């Protein structure tokens, strides 16, 4: 089920910070039309850190309703409180999510044993397929492959989004966890190489603005066509770079707003893209044919 380009979907917001569900429905329909393999709702790119629990659950349930079974929806339900992660995961299960994505607990910096106990507790509490999410650059917490291997033995934990950009991690996880364990890239810049090396897909920020191109690149990589995959990815590399000129999702929300697909709303402590970063991102959007 989880193969190819999966969009880490933004949460559209109006100028005052309220979630714009009309724009959200439009984005979901667009991703269905463009062939995106799955939607990740309310992950990091969806500003999960600034949504309260009720909003978090509502955005997940509405995304599932808008998708209407046309493509899988993976709900971001991680938290640095195990109890909160269980509540969010239960909400997603009740809303009909196909799976949940749980980031390693951020800020409190648990040990490897703490990571194991946290994720096992969520998996044992809620009967829904669960993907681990390792992104130490944002969480200050790195789940090592040996811990991933322990968690791969826990019923319900089916895979991982590995966002270090380190292909050696893929090799280690695949060796320790076997071929049936789903390993997805969380790093757009190395996503093509990751899939060519045996990963099943990429959870992508870039797919927010070029969904069809990301899916085409992913399908070439999954088919083992390295020349085609790298050729398609070469066109995307400026976007992979410039969508991280400032903290995600600041640049991608600016890009989508400039393209006319969502309002410009963000929530503090995120702020609008600085003028210094607008020019290079605009140039990359123009080079990709997204702006005139």
Main beta-sheet strand count, sense and barrel state:
8 strands, parallel, barrel
State the helicity in percent bands: 40-55%
Count of the domains: 1
SSE order, as H and E? EHEHEHEHEHHEHEHEHHHH
User: Oligomerization state of this entry?
Assistant: single chain
Low-confidence stretches: none
Report the top-level CATH class.
Alpha Beta
Q: Which architecture does the CATH hierarchy give at level 2?
A: Alpha-Beta Barrel
Q: Cα distance, first to last residue?
A: 36 Å
User: What structural class do helix, strand and pairing data support?
Assistant: alpha/beta
Give the arrangement of secondary structure elements:
Elements: E1 4-8, H1 21-34, E2 38-41, H2 53-67, E3 73-76, H3 82-95, E4 99-103, H4 112-125, E5 130-134, H5 136-139, H6 145-152, E6 157-162, H7 167-177, E7 182-185, H8 191-196, E8 201-204, H9 211-222, H10 226-242, H11 250-258, H12 275-287
Helix pairs in contact: 1-2, 2-3, 3-4, 4-6, 6-7, 9-10
Concise account of the structure shown:
The protein is of the alpha/beta class and 292 residues long. The protein has helices at residues 21-34, 53-67, 82-95, 112-125, 136-139, 145-152, 167-177, 191-196, 211-222, 226-242, 250-258, 275-287; strands spanning 4-8, 38-41, 73-76, 99-103, 130-134, 157-162, 182-185, 201-204. α1 (21-34) crosses α2, α3 (82-95) packs parallel to α4 (112-125) and α6 packs parallel to α7.
């Amino acid at each position: 089920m989880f193969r190819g380009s999966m969009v880490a979907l933004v949460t559209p917001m109006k100028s005052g910070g309220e979630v714009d569900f009309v724009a959200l429905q439009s984005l979901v329909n667009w991703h269905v039309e463009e062939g995106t393999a799955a939607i990740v709702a309310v992950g990091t790119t969806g500003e999960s850190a600034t949504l309260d629990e009720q909003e978090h659950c509502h955005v997940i349930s509405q995304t599932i309703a808008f998708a209407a079974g046309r493509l899988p929806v993976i709900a971001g339900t991680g938290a640095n409180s195990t109890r909160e992660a269980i509540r969010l995961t239960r909400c997603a299960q009740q809303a009909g999510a196909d799976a949940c994505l749980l980031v390693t607990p951020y800020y409190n910096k648990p040990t490897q044993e703490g990571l194991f106990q946290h994720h096992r507790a969520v998996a044992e509490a809620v009967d829904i397929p669960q993907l681990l999410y390792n992104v130490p650059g944002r969480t200050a917490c790195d789940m090592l492959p040996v811990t991933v291997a322990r968690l791969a033995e826990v019923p319900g934990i089916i895979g991982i989004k590995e966002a270090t950009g380190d292909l050696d991690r893929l090799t280690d996880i695949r060796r320790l966890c076997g071929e049936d364990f789903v390993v997805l890239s969380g790093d757009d810049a190395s996503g093509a190489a990751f899939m060519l090396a045996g990963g099943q897909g990429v959870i992508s920020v870039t797919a927010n603005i070029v969904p069809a191109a990301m899916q085409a690149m992913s399908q070439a990589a999954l088919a083992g066509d390295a020349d085609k995959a790298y050729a398609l990815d070469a066109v995307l590399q400026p976007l992979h770079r410039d969508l991280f000129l400032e903290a995600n999702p600041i640049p991608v929300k600016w890009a989508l707003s400039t393209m006319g697909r969502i309002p410009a709303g963000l929530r503090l402590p995120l702020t609008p893209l600085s003028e210094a970063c607008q020019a290079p991102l605009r140039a990359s959007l123009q080079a990709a044919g997204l702006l005139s």
